[in-house]
Input
Amino acid sequence: MSGYGTESAAIVRAARPGTYRLGLVLGSGLGSLADEIEDAVRVPYTRLAGFPVSTVSSHGSELVAGTLEGVSVVVLSGRAHYYEGGGADVMRTPLETLKDLGCETVLLTNAAGSLREAFAPGTPMLISDHINWSGLNPLIGEESEDRFLDMSAAYDADLRDKLKARAKEEGIALGEGVYMWFSGPSFETPAEIRMAQVLGADAVGMSTVPEVILARYLGMRVAAISTITNYGAGLQAHALSHAETKATALTAVDALKRLIRGFVRDLDT
Output
């Protein structure tokens, strides 16, 4: 543990006492969900020791604690990425804070590029597994034996079943696939995309995998959803851009928020 998680959790508890059940990490385009948290307190990352402040325009930098669908939640509105400072463990303190606040489950969201025709821009993809192509790991330097972490079931099967069932109830087409992490910030080349397809990836992105490793290390159950914002390099006629990522992510917000709200209601079922 970094030590800052307990300190930051105490600041949150002082503003809003209680124990929380679910942590939500909001990726590109989903920041508006934080505005829907009820009985909320908002704490800027700058007030929380060890919290990174994102330099990405589509990410906020505040923690929101309150209730969603009657469940006590802590929302990380915005994340920091490896490419912003070169630390794979950049989200360690925020995740330790979730754990210290009582969160047993974390739902991660991100924006990703599709490698499969079936996963079209503007649709969600449930992550079933990942490939850590970067070779980086947030547990490098950890001295305890716990660093030898079993990742064979990193994405909780029961949580995935709940999300698939809820998507069906809501009439949301929810694909399921493997996410490959590239370090970024440059987009992948067409050759890298072809390689990723051969290796079995269905989508590529620049986040989430380190957070999954950290959350599992901390003993939390994990589920993750990608919003597909584009096709990978060489699979679409126009050039890739962050502007496209942000714009397309916004088109999927309403469906994704319905899915997340239903998932929260279903936690106890």
Q: What stands out?
A: The chain has one domain: 4-265. The chain has a mean pLDDT of 93. Residues 213 and 239 are 32 Å apart (CA to CA).
